[in-house]
Amino acid sequence: MKAFTASLTRLPVRYSTVPRTMAFAANSRIMSVPQPSIMRLSLRTYADEAKPKEETEKKESATKKDENTNLTEEQKQIQDLQTKLDAKTKEAVELKDRLLRAVADFRNLQEVTKKDIKKAKDFALQKFAKDLLESVDNFGHALAAFKEEDIKKSKEISDLYTGVRMTKDVFESTLRKHGIEKLDPLGEPFDPNKHEATFELAQKDKEPGTVFHVQQLGYTLNDRVIRPAKVGVVKLEDN
């Protein structure tokens, strides 16, 4: 310690070149301003400078928050609307599918109903036709009973014959009007779907399997056989 103090005493002393009056005046001005006032002034100045910036940041933050809030609400509304739209779209698809199924079922029902009505109509007409066919057959038998010579000799017999024939023609015309046609297979090949063979007979001048005699006429209803024709069929000659 003594050595350090001795070294200090040997250092050269430098005197300030500033006039004492100026140094004194500066020191006097600095000393005249209280230190707490200087600190308050500095803090106030910093606060005044920082306040607008802070307010600006707060406003920007609030604006961003509002924008985020608005954006979030809009997104939520869009999402809700999209959900409702998807639900309505699904409902519309389901309704369309149900409608198409209902239309298809209705059309199928129409077709089935038409077929049932046609079947019922055909069945009723077929039964009615079968009943009429017996009458037509009887008229045919009656006409066959007339002899040509008797018709020529007697006017009364001729008129009776004409009346029976006309009545038979009216019956047959009524049958044709309702789709019922006569089936006369004379000279045609035998068809088991249309003909009923009541007997067979060998004949030299005819092809085997050919209808050579019609015992009873057949009838069809809309191309469907309602009564097969009873026929005689040619058979092969016995050797």
UniProtKB/TrEMBL annotation:
Residues 46-75 have a biased composition (Basic and acidic residues). Gene3D superfamilies: 3.90.20.20, Head domain of nucleotide exchange factor GrpE. GO terms for cellular component: PAM complex, Tim23 associated import motor. Coiled coil: none annotated. It comes from the Eukaryota. Residues 45-75 are annotated as: Disordered. GO terms for molecular function: adenyl-nucleotide exchange factor activity; protein homodimerization activity; protein-folding chaperone binding; unfolded protein binding. GO terms for biological process: protein folding; protein import into mitochondrial matrix. It is found in: Mitochondrion matrix. Keywords: Chaperone, Mitochondrion, Transit peptide. Belongs to the GrpE family. Essential component of the PAM complex, a complex required for the translocation of transit peptide-containing proteins from the inner membrane into the mitochondrial matrix in an ATP-dependent manner. HAMAP family: GrpE (MF_01151). This is GrpE protein homolog. The lineage of its organism: Eukaryota, Fungi, Dikarya, Ascomycota, Saccharomycotina.
